[in-house]
Amino acid sequence: MLTIFHYLILSFLLFSIGVAGVLLRRNIIIVLMSLELIFNSVNISLAAFSYYLQSLNGTVFVIFNITVAAAEVAIGLAILVSVYRVRKTVNVEDLDEMRY
Amino acid sequence: MQMNLHLMTPEFVMLGTAFLLLILELFLYKGSRMVTGVIGIIGTCIAGYTLIGAETGKAVGGLFLQDTVSIFFKWLFLVITVLILYLVMMYEDKIKNWRGEFYALILFSISGMMFLSSITDFIGFYVSLEFVAVCLYVLAAFTNDNPLTVEAGLKYLVTGALASGFLVYGISFIYGASGATGFVEVAHSLKSVDGNGFLIIGITLLVIGLTFKISSIPFHVWAPDVYQGAPTPVTALLAAASKSAGFIVIMRILFTGLIGVKAEWIILVSIISGASLLFGNLAAMPQKDIKRLIAYAGIGSAGYLLMAVAAASALGAGAIMFYLLTYVFSILGSFIAIVAFNNAEGSDLIESYAGLSRRSPLLAATLFIGLLSIAGIPPLGGFIAKFYIIAAAVKEGLWALAVIGVVMAVVAMYYFLLVVKSMYLRPPKNTEPIKVDITTRALLYFINAVTIFLGLYPGPITDWVMDIAKVLF
Known about the structure:
The structure holds two protein chains of two kinds. Chain A has a domain at 27-93. Chain A has helices at 4-24, 28-53, 57-87. Chain A is mostly helical. The model of chain A has no long low-confidence stretch (mean pLDDT 91). Chain B has one domain. Helices cover 74% and strands 1% of the residues of chain B. Chain B contains 19 helices and two strands. Chain B has helices at residues 9-24, 34-51, 68-91, 99-116, 122-140, 147-178, 183-190, 197-210, 222-229, 232-257, 262-284, 290-311, 314-345, 356-359, 361-375, 381-395, 399-424, 438-456, 459-469; strands spanning 57-59, 64-66. Chain B starts with 8 loop residues before the first helix and ends with a helix. The A-B interface holds A 15, 18-19, 22, 28, 31-32, 35, 38-39, 41-42, 45-46, 49, 52-53, 55, 57-58, 60-61, 64-65, 68, 71-73, 75-76, 78-80, 82-83, 85-87, 95, 97-98, 100 and B 122-123, 126-127, 130, 133-134, 137-138, 141, 144-148, 150-155, 157-158, 161-162, 164-165, 168-169, 171-173, 175-176, 179-181, 224-225, 228-229, 286.
């Protein structure tokens, strides 16, 4: 029998993988993928709560969240293209022109 | 369901102006876009006109709430818009492509912030917040031939999206604990819930996610790089408008939605406030670039404002509003002076400001008044604001925070006085006077007069702000 906690644990694991990806990976494309993973883990959590509480607000929130995540990553890729044109790299460690 | 869409007239006017500017791009040739800026300012003034005597009430079945606090913040955003659009017109030569879209995006982000100041539901709040954020991501990376700017834009986007992830994960837990997304419904259903694990996780993640907008610890890392690298008008927009928008939503969520469980968040907000005060002010001391210095000082200011949030009283809310009022005028005056100086000299380094008092007394005086008002020197507006914040903290027994606040005010004086020393005491390398045109001059006199007036005669304004802040409780 699946309870709400199974969904929440799945969502937590995906969220942690996403945060670890953002903080640890060097390639910006993988960082953007990890961000997408974070938003999708939240969708699982919202959908699970929505079913568990028998309330529609969570489901509506999921739809908005998908839209927002798509917009955010689209802008991210556009900025990434600009970065690549100017700096010829997609590696986070090379973007260190400004420090302290 | 009551629609009452007329309550949203100012927002619709701003959105309409932004779309008008985009359409106007079809009919204009390459070159100056002063006309776009002027139309933007006129549109903002029309939005202000529709806001005069605006009635209070609820729209769209209670998702949108127009009260005196949201009207105050909308006025603040409109004043910011006029000044920022003027700043863009001064800055225009440095933007090579898509100048018209730059103005339009600023209006879009401001209209998102105006929605944010009235929103009473987590779904609407999240969508408005992301609307603002997406516009700001594009603006921060706008001059995409400059290596510093694209780097700043990418850093802003990655930290911003990570913070949004924390925020929305927190909201999902609060939804799980309360079964509702409206702030009032959440407050109502949390009365019967106590010490719920979901709620504690939710509040922690939510507060951490919100710190991104106001550039306080732990999501402060973007601030120095983005302030330095982004086009200067965008830096001003982030410093003035984005921070104000962050605080109105923090006040709405924490004071309206989660006031019943304030024991769960006061300690967290206090820790964030103390850490931001210490980090922001201490890290500002060795800075060489004035925009970076303002970024670190901004982390410190977020610390002061969070101190008033931790007080969780009407006095604290009023102090936040008065602080933001003085902060907006001081910081935008300083940024107009910074852009005017950069246009003449092409540098933002503090050492290049040497001898500015002899080259342009007005620019030097504006930076002097603006920066010292942020630092909190007595006859200026910033002092009264800090005084009210510390008074609110002391009244609620937050002694440790109040002591850190007073000590850090002295530190802030130190690093801002370094800039003043460079401007007034060092001899200039290049003695050629800097020309400032007549409208900029008039605007700077006006802004300085407001900052001094708010310090010398704050009584009526503070009484008014304290009175409208009662609505939040």
